[in-house]
């Protein structure tokens, strides 16, 4: 199949598709992180939002595919967000999605926007509104909301009342958005709440986004599902409904592992990207934000993020190799084996030589990770940055 991939017409199609793919990297992925048991400090990690942006810019320079970085408030709090955006531009990247944080405060023990106490709900909503102010200053399009809200015990609170409170908070936040801004609602099956979660699945997120209006969209974090969930079905459904706003890409073996995307299950990533390609959704005009949401607890962070970008590119290239005509013909004629073979032929193609060639054609090093190791950047940050910061967990 390598010969198919290297045929000029096929290579051109892959090249055009990949040129549309823009992957946003998360500021917190560059900082120290860990589990509930231990945060491992790594040498050279950023001490400020500016240093996280500088690292993101390195990933973009080497891959040519990661032109924006997502911020997290308050982990990336600064006095002057317009100045931070200008700094990012100087570095060659843009500030992307603003991720709100209403989970890291003692007040939120029983929830944030769904808390039974109206004072706590007000505080949480005020933070979401502040995030929109920040978006105005940074020029960010998307506000991403993930709520840790839920309950641990049956009877702890009214499931239905919590939905009412959630609806009120989302409405107030949505109404504050500017014309070109969006609210992106993320769902997660469980954790930190274990009995009920207030936005546990795509159906709940979808229903709230439908009620809010056209600028409310769903975020699929690939790690936020029960084992065996058919994520590509969710992708296809939301795309068809015009409600897929963003991905938080990562890999999971067991729960919300936040491992490198494409590491645990590259076939699942390919199936997801196949739905994206089939739906024409690589086109930036459709507005889907392809973000990473990962932590690199035991591996060196910048090369891990480069690897993750490359993993998404490889899965996308394979999805672009699917022979759409042959697939449609096999599907029409009910030839199950032939249809499946079309997908598997694309998946089993080694696209790495093609991607290396495309990088060289764009003036990039064909091997971005080797280029990073040769660049001396890691040695430089390990020398220069003393006292690197934790991303936020356990702070
Ligand atoms: C939490 O599990 C979610 O994946 C969030 O998207 C994210 O990890 C957190 O909000 C960091 O910004
Ligand atoms: Zn996420
Ligand atoms: Zn998560």
From TrEMBL:
Xylose isomerase-like TIM barrel domain residues: 79-275
PANTHER family xref list: L-RHAMNOSE ISOMERASE
A Pfam match: AP_endonuc_2
Organism per entry: Pseudonocardia xinjiangensis
InterPro entries, per the entry: L-rhamnose_isomerase (IPR050337), Rhamnose_iso-rel (IPR013457), Xyl_isomerase-like_sf (IPR036237), Xyl_isomerase-like_TIM-brl (IPR013022)
Keywords carried by this UniProt record: Isomerase, Manganese, Metal-binding
Protein name in UniProt: L-rhamnose isomerase
EC number(s) recorded for this UniProt protein: 5.3.1.14
GO molecular function: L-rhamnose isomerase activity
